[in-house]
Design brief:
It is a single chain. By secondary structure, the protein is mostly helical. It has one domain. It is about 85% helix and about 0% strand. It contains six helices and no strands. It has helices at about 5-10, 20-50, 60, 65-85, 90-115, 120-170. Helix 2 packs parallel to helix 5 and helix 4 runs antiparallel to helix 5 (about 90-115). The radius of gyration is 22 Å and the shape is globular. The N and C termini lie far apart (about 65 Å). InterPro entries: Ca-permeable_cation_channel (IPR053258). Keywords: Membrane, Transmembrane, Transmembrane helix.
Length: about 170
């Protein structure tokens, strides 16, 4: 009824983020990046299963460190992504940090699988990942320190609250 596309577009919101013209492109880029990570990890796991099919050895026997690094990074990826999705829309700095953590850990998980499947390309990709990681850390270091100090302070307050409640319960017992 008389709603034009521009007013309707500004009133849209996704499940997790408010969508407007400024951050719609960034949100689409993040969604595509996560889709690529999920596609690459699932495809690589299938290829890894095929590569070791019918062998006495498993990737855990032959590449234990790479597999452990893969699973640790995959867990970090999932936890950071879910945490980012559950943040309120006003937590932009936390959202940016968690997005970076999820993207870098997802990419590193993919690289760990590539190291097992095609070692030469895996090592080249790992070197590229390190270069990108160092550049981003150098660029975002001040923001990361502010965020970490804020989180540290919040965790200290939570810990103090829990301890004071525990002491109060012991005194009442």
């Amino acid at each position: 009824m008389g709603n034009d596309d521009s007013t309707n577009h500004h009133s849209q919101s996704s499940l997790f983020f408010p969508i407007d013209r400024e951050n719609e492109e960034e949100l689409n880029c993040c969604i595509k990046f996560h889709a690529v990570i999920v596609f690459f990890v699932s495809t690589s796991c299938t290829l890894l299963q095929t590569k070791y099919q019918g062998r006495d050895q498993t990737p855990f026997n032959t590449h234990y460190c790479h597999m452990l690094a893969f699973f640790v990074n995959l867990c970090i990826y999932v936890v950071a992504l879910v945490s980012e999705m559950n943040l309120p829309a006003t937590s932009t700095s936390s959202r940016l940090i968690l997005n970076a953590i999820s993207q870098f850990s997802g990419a590193l998980a993919s690289v760990m699988l590539l190291l097992i499947l095609v070692p030469l390309i895996g090592w080249l990709t790992f070197a590229l990942w390190i270069v990108c990681f160092v550049r981003i850390i150098k660029k975002c270091y001040p923001q990361f320190v502010r965020w970490f100090n804020h989180v540290k302070f919040d965790m200290f307050e939570i810990w103090r609250s829990v301890l004071s409640r525990h002491v109060t319960e012991e005194e009442n017992s």
